[in-house]
UniProtKB/TrEMBL annotation:
UniProt xrefs under PROSITE patterns: PPM_2
Entry-linked CDD domains: PP2Cc
Protein name (record): protein-serine/threonine phosphatase
Swiss-Prot/TrEMBL catalytic activity: O-phospho-L-seryl-[protein] + H2O = L-seryl-[protein] + phosphate; O-phospho-L-threonyl-[protein] + H2O = L-threonyl-[protein] + phosphate
Species for this entry: Aegilops tauschii subsp. strangulata (Goatgrass)
SMART domains found in the cross-reference section: PP2Cc
Its EC number(s): 3.1.3.16
UniProt domain PPM-type phosphatase: residue ranges: 1-252
EC supergroup of this enzyme: hydrolase
Keywords carried by this UniProt record: Hydrolase, Protein phosphatase
Length: 262
């Protein structure tokens, strides 16, 4: 499976997002005003810029000549989360998904962009495209997602526009799971949250160093969250998932260092 677009998104989306945020104004304070529309513009501009660079419509280098980074039938889903002290802001384009594990309840913070979703199908057909049931519903009988970055051969039916959600954080928020459909094809939101929560607690029980005990706000990798992500990948493989399995877990709890350790 060609991975050029997925790798480019991994390396560049956060960089472009930072550039868009620095250039923008008027986002307002979270919780004080309705800021969903400005955030939709921020993420929309970010994803569109990355798509333009991937597709060769915009140069990736200063004074460089634009050229695509991959063939026109290569693309990628993309899901992004901004975690701050008061809110979680997410943007999703494609069939990846972000799930908040709050206590014992999973809360989906994105809705998969599938071609048979009523609004997505209407959008595709309004643009002159078709949704065909060919071993599952697919755009033009080919692709099983309705939004992506790249995939130039299916534009304008596929678009890079993300959907954005903003959720206030709560005391019983345990962790956040961002994963591609290779996980969600074989595991429910509830089961994934149970596994992630259990693995994080198990890691802290078995490791007496309290690493990254501030709930994942440090820029370094949180080993407990990584252990949870690794476990979810292994479980998806054991369940026979045949699609890409990419998983990130973010520990949202503030965890104290064990007694007796400096």
């Amino acid at each position: 499976m060609p991975v050029q677009v997925a790798n480019y998104c991994r390396d560049k989306i956060h960089v472009v997002l930072r550039e868009v945020l620095r250039a923008g104004r008027g986002l307002g304070e979270l919780g004080e005003v309705d800021v969903k529309e400005p955030w939709e513009k921020v993420f929309g501009d970010c994803f569109q810029k990355v798509d333009d660079e991937v597709s060769g419509k915009a140069s990736r280098l200063s004074n460089g000549r634009p050229e695509p980074i991959a063939a026109d039938n290569v693309g990628s889903t993309a899901v992004v989360a901004i975690v701050c002290s008061s809110h979680v802001i997410t943007a999703n384009c494609g069939d990846s998904r972000v799930v908040l594990c709050r206590g014992k309840e999973p809360i989906a913070l994105s809705v998969d962009h599938k071609p048979d979703r009523k609004d997505e199908r209407a959008r595709i057909e309004a643009a002159g495209g078709k949704v065909i049931d060919w071993n599952g519903y697919r755009v033009s009988g080919i692709l099983a997602m309705s939004r992506s970055i790249g995939d130039r051969y299916l534009k304008p039916f596929l678009i890079p526009k993300p959907e954005v959600s903003i959720v206030a954080r709560a005391k019983d928020d345990d962790c956040l799971i961002l994963a591609s459909d290779g996980l969600w094809d074989v595991m429910s939101n509830e089961d994934a949250c149970k596994v992630a929560r259990r693995q994080i607690l198990l890691w802290y029980k078995n490791n007496n160093d309290g690493a990254n005990s501030d709930g994942g706000s440090e820029p370094t990798m949180n080993p407990a969250a990584k252990a949870a992500a690794d476990c979810l990948v292994r479980l998806a493989l054991s369940k026979g998932s045949g699609d890409n399995i990419s998983v990130i877990v973010i520990d949202l709890k503030s965890r104290k260092k064990p007694k007796g350790k400096s």
